[in-house]
Inverse folding.
């Protein structure tokens, strides 16, 4: 398969460009008989869509999704679900320099050299706009995971530039435009973003995602492990430069007794594994953390070259997110959900006749604190 | 495809268990006409094999590879290359507790619950021994990448537990048992490992891998990006908990002007991208960094449960690596090489008729320092 | 991958139902830089579309295709090409019996039992209408094959019910509503069809497809052979019950000296192989023949059961093709083209560095007659 | 994936050459917990192996299979099952002409031109010997299908050259060296073969394969239909030139009322569909028929060219099957079993929660005769 499909059995094929007529995806392999309509999908699209606060791009896109197939009388039929989102705000403009020169940090240079042709309008295929179909497909996956297994997939902003955000509660997340799990930091984040926009700069972010309720047994031993599939999906997202599972990079400095999670009949005593051992889910929370680089589209001058190979100076005006990480939380959730549904199906394909031979260990023993995904450079070992 | 295959067009299918009759792999899709014999493969296997120093497991395995197919009169034929390694040192022993109880941090519990059956001898399928076929296949990939494109894939140990190792030179790497790129740290590493073994503990590690000479244009825009494929391969390796490309997690705290790599006709001015933009190679060094957790097999007591779900205390004696990261360098190199050859083939499949429309930018401008893969918690932005 | 995608590197993912809002497909992996617009695709859709003569269904569908992505300034960009066809004539009606009972020969029973839900409107997903996206994708493949390699893919009706049609010339094919390669039989075919419609019956057909100009070397040795891929694609088409390559079933009664095609420097002396040996193209015409069963939708009474498992009598009124084979020629061409482009890309991925070691043998030696795909029960060995 | 793997979820990767050190395969995705040892596999290998009668090649190969992995304490573990067969009878000889010239009807020319290198020893990779690993894998599939679903996969020789063999009973099949389902024809077949060998000629054959007990619901609507997967597998077998499902090519001349199988609560009234409607199994017998071309290795003179492109005359002495179809029955069974297990797993992946909404219709109503796979040129419609 070429690269625009994600998943082996619940497969999402993504299409579209930022300023073409439409974007969308085809989901193939969805289990039949699940109630589904646009109403199930739109909320996650709305969480991701531009223009929801002054801290994100002001492009106006309603991101209205239309289900073109695969649903009959309100239920999935098991045949491909095509989802269509028309592009609306393709503000006519002169692309001048951008069409001719390669913006540093962008895919301009690599697309051009790979394909010999490049849709430069709004970044074309490399635009973060193309994450909308992923989010739409993820909403379908989330619904099934919740209905069939009680799995919940939730994410939050863990760091915005230099601002680390302590996890306080899931309830805080939808109550601010940053998906921050802590109401007390919101004012500081707003101030930081206002100053950043004023300076013409951009910043990076860290997003944590957690899947709760995943049964033990999803995943595979070698190569296509569950963690490998998660890493693939996350690193396949624009601007992501790092992925961690569980203790992540902090595990480099842990000792064996600190890292490995002890087990009791009452539950695991820690979760450095991030819910995955040997590529297979343990039944604990699956915890993932990703690093998102600062937006490359900034209005400050940068050195680059043009198509002729000549040096030029470029800066990028227009409507851009000063931190693409702000809108990344629903996308990361969608990606994790897509990986999980795929592995749920893979697991029952091969092991559908296996009855759990030992009673499942609870996700955590009483008294063990909630452990959202850690931060790599946390000075303390996670559970110490 | 089930999970035991890696790559779409240069596909490695891995088989075997630690204490079964043999391990090995089948490579399908290798380009024909390349000179190949066991002599090309054995050196990388020897770099990975156990027993090479007192700091790694003392299991005695020669890891002799036999080419069973796909080579005729010393050349690859384009048909599957089967590689076989017989297991030799399957020391007969009483697996007692290990057969009945689940070692914390190991795949024992997840395999058992997934499959309802588990080869507990030496970890069975979850043993790090199963990386040998990956290394063997990687040697084939490396040879082709070097011969066809001049690509070199090299790795080194960047951190051993708390000991960070400054990159000094590639020449140092083969000269010590740690793959450390710096001769001056070796004595300290040896002392650290000796103390660790004495204490019964284990430690984590960080490995950096760099591919030089990769042409611009390998990779894809969405989902199966080159960085996504790398993350998948690396996170699919036993004990890996984190993957970074380029600046990795350090990019969270970078500003836009710090992160995005400016371009001049003389070369890129930095490499925070780690050689990949928009999922496609830029022509710069591809830099990858991975976190390896501490070995879970330690001889100190750990709480766990047995197959009946009852609490037990377990400790693991026998021949184990106190830091699996020490032998991980050749494996990480192999994985990167396998991803690269796959994308080299994918690229020429689709874009074989594209002539580079703009002269390729050199990997780095004169005076820009060599940039091996960074460390996430580097206090300074990478190129500042 | 679930089943709705065709091809490994030039991958077509099909979606839609007969009476849903739209049908279409996404092509992933198309080589970049090829001029493409709706004008290239519409003609083949028009050849397939309903209502073009009194011998096919009278449903009115313009089958207007819209390119939603993957084309920029008139050229393919190498990113997914989404093709959309809105359904227009979804005549509101009472589906009564059809919604409740399973039409013999149709997919009603199997869809219902597999998925537990079934879009019964016009056959839903099992409608021949879903071949339109295949034809659209095939037009893209055909254009590239012609432009890049000079490959021509052409088909014709070889038999209509009991009426065998001798191949006369390609020029005749577009000049009649049957795709018959012989003008002299058209009147008889029309009379046959008129009588068939009057009787309420339906009939089967045989379609032959030929690809000329395919270079030697496309295909693979084992399992995914070129002929296997063709058989897969053809048997994946609604109503197809048999597939032959070259001499097909006639080869059962051939002797070794009759079947195997001798080679001379001036060309092959026959083409019983149908252009494929050992799963790889020879450079001769690739000749394929398929059997299409009679339409199952007939207005004569048939015994069946309903959803409750009770016996009922059913007959199917409405707008149906009395012979689906009549419109199958452009579809079979599209399928062959899709297989060929896929193997063209696969071949250059693996063997892009192989220079033809021996001068290619011409497709046929002078004086050897043109050999369109044979008929299985031809009493004479093909080239005798 | 390159071409040497068959199946999506139960995936067989084949390796080896006729005269290399070994042949074999890796099965990935086998359900865990099934009792398995070499004893389950060897009988089918023995049915296929050379030298069992004077009518097949006299090469001496015991075809002893060794299980290298994936089985622990007599049960499948769910991890890859590697099967190894050492080549024993690689009679040292001078390949002279064969090494330099291309045998008509063989893959010599196409392999050479595709890969630029060719293992000419015994046909190398294109040898029918490479069907042994397929048979071995098929035995595993058969065992699971039988144990889990009561599915039986059986085949027989339906035609040998001009000799059509009426189906008499399954019991006759193992009682003669031809797999003929009719004891009364055996003497005639032996006489025919003796005369054929004497003349230096070879002949074709037709094999029918039937799977009984397949539940309703396996397969998919578009492209990767169950019949498409069967056609792919069968046409991927050496020497196969045609594939039919159910009525096959006979359906071309059937009328709608003759072809479509009526349904009653007591069972289907005929089986022209061959057990598949809309790409999905109906619960009836799945009936498949394949055409096998005459062996190309004959000792009579044939015109061809050599590697320099010069005309030469070639003839093939040595140990060859005068009719490869004779040993093809167990191979065709294996291929059908491999397709079925794959679709069994695919089905429960997606539709594992669907409870059969309507009671399954019996395979056939009382009084409806047994219908093994038909012959294309049967003058009478199948059930008339």
């Amino acid at each position: 398969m070429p690269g625009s499909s994600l998943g082996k059995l619940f497969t999402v094929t993504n299409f579209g460009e930022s300023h073409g007529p439409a974007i969308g995806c085809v989901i193939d392999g969805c289990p039949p008989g699940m109630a589904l309509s646009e109403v199930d999908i739109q909320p996650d699209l709305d969480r991701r869509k531009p223009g929801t606060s002054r801290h994100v791009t002001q492009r106006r896109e309603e991101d209205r999704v239309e289900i073109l197939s695969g649903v009959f009388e309100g239920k999935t039929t098991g045949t491909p679900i095509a989802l269509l989102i028309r592009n609306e705000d393709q503000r006519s403009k002169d692309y001048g320099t951008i069409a001719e020169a390669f913006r540093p940090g962008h895919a301009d240079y690599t697309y051009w050299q790979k394909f010999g042709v490049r849709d430069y309008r709004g970044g074309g295929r490399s635009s973060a706009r193309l994450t909308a179909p992923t989010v739409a497909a993820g909403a379908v996956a989330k619904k099934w995971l919740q209905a069939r297994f009680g799995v919940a997939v939730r994410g939050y902003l863990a760091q915005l530039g230099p601002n680390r955000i302590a996890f306080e509660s899931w309830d805080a997340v939808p109550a601010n435009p940053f998906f921050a799990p802590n109401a007390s930091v919101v004012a500081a984040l707003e101030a930081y973003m206002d100053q950043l926009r004023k300076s013409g700069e951009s910043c990076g972010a860290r997003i944590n995602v957690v899947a709760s309720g995943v049964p033990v047994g999803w995943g595979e031993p070698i190569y296509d492990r569950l963690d490998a599939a998660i890493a693939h999906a996350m690193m396949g997202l624009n601007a992501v430069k790092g992925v961690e599972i569980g203790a992540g990079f902090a595990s480099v400095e842990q000792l064996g007794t600190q890292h490995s999670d002890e087990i009791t009949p009452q539950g695991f005593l820690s979760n450095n594994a991030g819910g995955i051992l040997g590529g297979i889910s343990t039944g604990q929370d699956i915890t993932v953390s990703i690093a998102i680089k600062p937006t490359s589209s900034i209005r400050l001058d940068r050195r680059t070259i043009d198509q002729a190979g000549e040096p030029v100076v470029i800066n990028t005006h227009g409507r851009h997110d000063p931190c693409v990480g702000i809108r990344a939380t629903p996308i990361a959730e969608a990606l994790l959900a897509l990986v999980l549904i795929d592995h749920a199906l893979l697991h029952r394909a091969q092991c559908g006749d296996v009855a759990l031979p030992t009673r499942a260990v609870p996700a955590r023993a009483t008294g063990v604190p909630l452990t959202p995904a850690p931060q790599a450079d946390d000075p303390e070992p996670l559970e110490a």
Summary: Chain A touches chain D at residues 8-9, 29-33, 78-79, 148, 221-222, 345-346, 348-354 (CB under 8 Å). DSSP finds eight helices and 18 strands in chain A. The first strand of chain A starts at residue 5 and ends at 6. Helices of chain A lie at 38-48, 96-100, 108-115, 131-149, 186-199, 226-235, 256-259, 328-351.
